[in-house]
Amino acid sequence: MLKNEFIRASEGIIMNTYKRVPVVFVEGKDCMLIDSEGNKYLDMVGGLAASGMGHSPDFLVEAIMNQAKKLMHVTNYYWNEPQYELAKLLVDNSFGDKVFFCNSGAEANEAALKLARKYGYKMFDTPRYEIVTVSESFHGRTLGTLSATAKESYREGYKPLPEGFKQVPFNDVESLENAVSEKTCAIMFEPLQGEGGLTQVSEAFVNKVNDLAKKQGLLIIVDEIQCGLGRTGAMFAYEQYGIIPDIMSLAKTMAGGFPIGAIVATEKVADAWNPGDHGTTFGGNPLACAAGAATMKEIINQNIPEKVKEDGAYLIQKLQMLKEKYDFVKQVKGKGLMVGLELNFPGDEIVRKAFDKKLIINCTSGKVLRFLPPMVIKKEEIDLFVNTLDQVFQEVN
């Protein structure tokens, strides 16, 4: 079937929930994608950070194949070895003591919200249930995570949403302090926002979160679904922002693109759950966890956070040169290999023109070009990316 025929056929039977680019990708390796017509593209989106170790890396293919031959699924009424192995890797490399596995980032954040509320219900004489989140956040598309997500555009048509959530401007210390009440059980935020335009949490905001948590017994929830697992130059982003959370949500890179999600929590918080309080059929299945364990081992063994720190500095330096060259580039944002260029006009045309040159980039928050390449990217690929983007900017200019 020809590409256009395939796309028309797909449009006839697949729900219209994505604004898709008219291309059909059939193969990928490392930082390159190949479409159904044999064209090669440099991927600077990396499955929105899910393909963090590149497309179809050999170690991941081997791990999935080996586990698939043995056992793909078993109910969580029983134990399985890959689940323990991945949980041990997460606990040994983070603040946490206990792990809960699910299937996606939205599920992970839903679990984080439920655990925080259960903790607030059990630990205080008067149950606490309110959760404070921040502007421009994105935590998922379930009804619960939509309530935590501050972007109104995602909520349109889904109200009434679950109650008990307050949003404050990100990095606004005074608004945060005013939002916390005797009903508040947790404060939730992304250390480095993804959909929110690559905005980093400020030192002042972190200090206030820590202060409020200590004085009022609040939980700190960090959403590291996009910024975690090496992406910012540390294993977890919270390590670079002066904060130790009580709950952390993870997904995307954790299994190299294979569907998985998790929350990591301290033992004190995790103990708020008893059997039956939460669950999932497929979460923690042997196949996903084998993929996750293999990916985590590679991130550790290859010292990916250190590589990201070096390559991220190189990328940001190159992007700063573009900023100095073009007046319409307002600023370079982000950290590590989670970086953006903020423009003074909508970035959709830039994304389209880059795609025509076989470069895959993304635009978020209207005017921020977002770059989330596989963390195995080479410097020569960074050079190719920046040179191609320079060509696009010249055309637009």
If you had to describe this structure to a student in words, what would you say it looks like?
With 397 residues, this protein is an alpha/beta fold. It has 2 domains: 3-56 and 303-396, Aspartate Aminotransferase, domain 1; 71-301, Aspartate Aminotransferase, domain 2, CATH 3.40.640. The protein is built from 13 helices and 15 strands. The chain has helices at residues 3-13, 58-70, 81-92, 105-123, 143-148, 152-155, 173-179, 203-216, 267-270, 286-301, 304-325, 348-356, 379-396, and strands at residues 25-29, 32-35, 40-43, 98-102, 130-134, 165-168, 184-189, 219-223, 247-250, 261-265, 329-335, 338-343, 359-360, 362-364, 368-371. Strands 4-10-9-8-7-5-6 form a 7-stranded mixed sheet, sandwiched between helices. Strand 2 and strand 3 (40-43) form a beta hairpin. The longest helix is centred in the last third of the chain and has 22 residues, at 304-325. The chain is globular and about 65 Å long.
What secondary-structure arrangement, pairings included, does this model have?
Blueprint: H1 3-13, E1 25-29, E2 32-35, E3 40-43, H2 58-70, H3 81-92, E4 98-102, H4 105-123, E5 130-134, H5 143-148, H6 152-155, E6 165-168, H7 173-179, E7 184-189, H8 203-216, E8 219-223, E9 247-250, E10 261-265, H9 267-270, H10 286-301, H11 304-325, E11 329-335, E12 338-343, H12 348-356, E13 359-360, E14 362-364, E15 368-371, H13 379-396
Parallel strand pairs: 3-13, 5-6, 5-7, 7-8, 8-9
Antiparallel strand pairs: 1-2, 2-3, 4-10, 9-10, 11-12, 12-15, 14-15
Modified residues (N6-(pyridoxal phosphate)lysine): 252
Protein name: Acetylornithine aminotransferase
EC number: 2.6.1.11
